[in-house]
Amino acid sequence: MHKKKITWIVGMLALFMFLALSPAHSQTKELRVVGSWNSLTMYKNFEMPFWTEVVPAELGLKTSMTSLSQITLKGPAVLRQMSMGVFDAVHTVVDYVVDDSPALAGLDLPALATDIADARKVVEAYRPVLEEYLARDFDAKLLSVAPYPAQVIFCRDRINGLADLKGKKIRASGWTTSEFVNAVGATGVTLSFSEVPQALQRGVVDCAVTGSLSGYSAGWGEVSNFVYPLPIGGWDYVIGTMSQATWNSLSPDQQAKLQSLIKEKLEDPAWEVTKKETQEGLDCLSGGECPHGTPNKLELVPISEGDRELAKKLLVEAVLPAWSKKVDSSAVSKWNETIGQVVGFKIE
User: Fold this and answer.
1) Which UniProt keywords apply (predicted)?
2) Under 8 Å CB-to-CB from 177, ≥6 apart: which residues?
3) SS3 assignment, position 153
């Protein structure tokens, strides 16, 4: 072969290798995205359209989409897989990953924020801490935080407030909720979401905690008689994350645009819808106007001021000390300096 032709071929191979390894080329790959539960509004109305329509149109990035409902990974495994390069972006519930990063549990504690306005203040205060621990423990970049509807309590037998939970078996929505119900004098029980209706029907549990609209949609209102809207299970925040490697492969302009778009198209509107769906869930459960189907006839138990104070007392005296034992002193200090300032509590 002619020497000049060999030189040209070698040069072209070098160029192809450079292009294959360059950041600009890596940006043309298909982003593999895992959304949250595909039966719920968060996925259907926000996550899926954002990644399959907005990102390709606005950033020119190809994407493929699946959900927590469709993969077999549980708990922190989905974020672990993302850090290994299996996925590029993941939306998952904070409570699912706290075993591998206990500091994250400080965001969503029982009765910490009893309305959605306070919940937003808590999230904004703690956001820098979430960013730090997600980067440290999962090599992940935080993109968004949005709540599911308030996690309320469903019961078969009459309750008039927190005191009536004493002695009952309650399906909790996470370990911090278990700490709370145990402090009330009840027993926290671990059950998967799908097992709850049968467990309530058979008396395996007396009460159970989940989102108001989630419970209605899953038929919990057909096997319960009372719903208590104090969010003793918190808000079940969904975090949107991206692997640090994928994030770093984007240009600064793409990074800025992605952050702006996810706030505008996903995070902010999801907060507004959650506020609406929390009330719609309660209306659907208690015989009110229900845009999601035929309403149930549960009794909506009013929240007393005494129960609001008792919930704060249990949070301060039982839940926060239990959480502080799972984290180091630095995490406690960061909680005091952020959420603690918002809610007026301090962990000693």
Assistant:
1) Signal
2) 110, 151, 188, 209, 232, 233, 234
3) strand
Contact indicator for 192, 138 with CB cutoff of 8 Å: no
d(CA 74, CA 37): 12
Cβ–Cβ under 8 Å, residues 89 and 245 = no
Domain boundaries, the chain: 28-147+236-277, 151-234+279-343
Quick check: 198 and 209 in contact, CB under 8 A?
Answer: no
Lowest mean pLDDT among 18-27, 97-106, 145-154, 172-181: 18-27
Span 125-171, pLDDT tens digits: 999 999 999 999 999 999 999 999 999 999 999 999 999 999 999 99
Domains 28-147+236-277 and 151-234+279-343 share a fold: yes
* Overall CATH class of domain 28-147+236-277: alpha beta
Helices (H) and strands (E) in the chain, counts: 17, 11
Calpha distance 270→145 (Å, rounded): 9
Residues in CB range of 97: below 8 A, 6 or more apart: 75, 76, 79, 104, 138
Report residue 31: phi and psi, to 5°. Answer: -75, 125
